[in-house]
Amino acid sequence: MVSRSYSNLLDLTSCGSPSFGREKKRLPRVATVAGVLSELDDETSNSVGSDTPSSVSQERMIIVGNQLPLRAHRKDNGTWEFTWDEDSLLLQLKDGLGDDVENVYIGCLKEEIEPSEQDDVAQYLLDNFKCVPTFLPPELFTKFYHGFCKQHLWPLFHYMLPLSPDLGGRFDRSLWQAYVSVNKIFADKVMEVISPDDDFVWVHDYHLMVLPTFLRKRFNRVRLGFFLHSPFPSSEIYRTLPVRDELLRALLNSDLIGFHTFDYARHFLSCCSRMLGISYQSKRGYIGLEYYGRTVSIKILPVGIHIGQLQSVMSHPETENKVAELKNQFRDQTVLLGVDDMDIFKGISLKLLAMEQLLLQHPDKRGRVVLVQIANPARGRGKDVQEVQSETYATVKRINDTFGRPGYTPVVLIDTPLQSYERIAYYVIAECCLVTAVRDGMNLIPYEYIICRQGNEKIDEILGTDPLTQKRSMLVVSEFIGCSPSLSGAIRVNPWNIDAVAEAMDSALMVPEAEKQMRHEKHYRYVSTHDVAYWARSFLQDLERACRDHLRRRCWGIGFGLGFRVIALDPNFRKLSVEHIVSAYKRTKHRAILLDYDGTMVQPGSMSTTPNAEAVSLLNSLCKDTKNCVFIVSGRERKTLTEWFSSCERMGIAAEHGYFVRTNQNAEWEACVAVSDFEWKQIAEPVMQLYTETTDGSNIETKESALVWNYEYADRDFGSCQAKELFDHLESVLANEPVSVKSSPNIVEVKPQGVSKGIVAERLLLTMQQKGVTPDFVLCIGDDRSDEDMFGVIMNARASLSPVAEVFPCTVGQKPSKAKYYLEDTSEILRMLQGLVNASELPTRISSLPSH
């Protein structure tokens, strides 16, 4: 959908040939947005965006990556020439977005542009390529890319810890600050062109992991997806990163987060659980994280390749000539092929050692089998790259010196850049492709190999194969790369096991032709149907689904810096105004007040759980007003509550979530639910004891009416796993008992059927009605899931209330709830109760004044 701000930019310029001597035309600092813009300063901004749907019909995708999908070349006359980089994934994915989606690209150029030329280049790229370049000062780019990205994130995400200065280096705060600064610059570029209510934003890879926070801070309802193209490490590795929480929270400001494999997604979810206390839920095939009222969706889908581009290059005469040349070069020899970047994670040296082992153990392969290793230039730089190069050259030399002879070179190392047609020609003539990376996010080399082995009529003619015969191919792939799970016909290996890799290479050569054809057919069917267009289309569909409720929700931001997040709640959910409730309180005469205790009258996590003097005083003052009927409704035992509130003579107490009720201090305790016996405890307690013994940090809380297994202090993942097992176990052994098994955060509880806080609310309203008193004011405050039953009862109890009754269901904190209102914390609750007390005492003070 065309942005109004972007349309204005296009109006400024024509799409003619570049003329860098023309008058400079700068992009606007911030987009024009329909609706109200408020607090645009980055440090104070909480929400910008319209609730009004756009009238423009065409969708637009803003694709943000570290590099633009462009090639730049300075011509002899000093001017720049730009062309599309057909190999760029960011360019290829447009095929899956549809012709009705306009694509705008934001990223850096590979070449450095002089500051004096940047404005003209930016305008030209916007006009002709719909690209918005991000120009970074060289020093900042070095700290950002070669510093934080390549020294910290890249090694860590590939499971390499900085145990010594040589292994990635210690954490450098200045590099982190550079990373944040660059992400902020990218955010500014997005803001120049975005129409936040209309556009989708798709951010790519680990270079821009905090960008979602900057965008969400400026536009609370931005429709934002993020895809990580590298592995995501296990929590034991990731937790070593000093800025671990900041990166996790930044990613959670996306609407959809994509990963290549379930393992990567599982590690991310485990990190969110262990470090942020956020658990995921799976519903109807979709995985989601509830984050401050927003559902952050998780997408698991490996990226594909652009098949049409490969097939097009295969049809070029240069490719056909190269295939013929290579066929002649390696006649009477079987070619094994490796194509890897020259970095420490690609396992080139392990592959060479396996080749050496193959020739040692199978002398018959000497002179007949050749390993062609294409070594692409490393993307990073540093000592580790130099070491990989030195080791590779030394190993190749040793193997060739040992096993080579005139007319036979066992290992052919190609370390100079190849044209696309040359690489494809090697794919075509290779009998087997080897990928022995020790860790890789995806690796599309096997996919490209499969498509190239399918060939075409001209290639078949050159190779001398029958076009009607099924094609064949073999793959030996590392089990540590992202594409491995999707290649079910490949021989999977542990690249660290040199002997096993050598045997896999031998097996691949010995596989019968029919089986090679079957494996190839299986792989070709998958790769051809799961191309890059399929991947992009699927991601966009899930992003649309994840964002469909944006305009229906009320959103506002909280937090500072990278701790910023957006609260998204139902439009009818709002903060309880003290003035509003006091006004209603004054107008009414028959009031019911139900208050939870833990987390409501005392702060959650407090060292002391006993009520303070202020809370007790407020409760006593409310009870003194004869128009009020006040109840504390708690999950605690009645003995404890009796001791704590001994001074509140007129206050009602409900203990153990409503099983026991006492209307005032002089009344007897009553059971709300009739229970004939508690013999079920003799069944449940031994089961809980078993799980307590095997779960360090857990304990059993025995109540008169219930048993509670608490795992708050256990390992989060293990405790959660044990809780699920215990829940199923208890439901099984107690299937014929009159009890219910409930699971809540950190606890599994067994209690008599029908016991809930909602019973207390029902009983109170019914009792008041039986006494001829129709409640016209109901206040109910609670903080957790057990209090939702009370909210539900009072909101559906119109038959028991006055037609003009004022009902105030109120939860603690901004979160999804049945309640219509919220207060932030205990201090606000006490302040509100003080307002009610003041309203009760005011008539008394007025009546006590002397008359004149």
TrEMBL record:
Q: Which Pfam families match?
A: Glyco_transf_20, Trehalose_PPase
Q: Which InterPro entries match?
A: Glyco_trans_20, HAD-like_sf, HAD-SF_hydro_IIB, HAD_sf, Trehalose_PPase
The superkingdom of the source organism is Eukaryota
What's a GO biological-process term for it?
trehalose metabolic process
**What organism is recorded for this protein?**
Flemingia macrophylla
Question: What family is it from?
Answer: In the C-terminal section; belongs to the trehalose phosphatase family. In the N-terminal section; belongs to the glycosyltransferase 20 family.
Which reaction is the catalytic activity of this chain? Answer: D-glucose 6-phosphate + UDP-alpha-D-glucose = alpha,alpha-trehalose 6-phosphate + UDP + H(+)
Q: What is this enzyme's class at the first EC digit?
A: transferase
Descriptive protein name: alpha,alpha-trehalose-phosphate synthase (UDP-forming)
Instruction: Print the keywords alphabetically.
Output: Glycosyltransferase, Phosphoprotein, Transferase
Q: What is its EC number?
A: 2.4.1.15
Q: Where is the organism placed in the taxonomic lineage, from the top?
A: Eukaryota, Viridiplantae, Streptophyta, Embryophyta, Tracheophyta
Q: Name one GO molecular function term.
A: alpha,alpha-trehalose-phosphate synthase (UDP-forming) activity
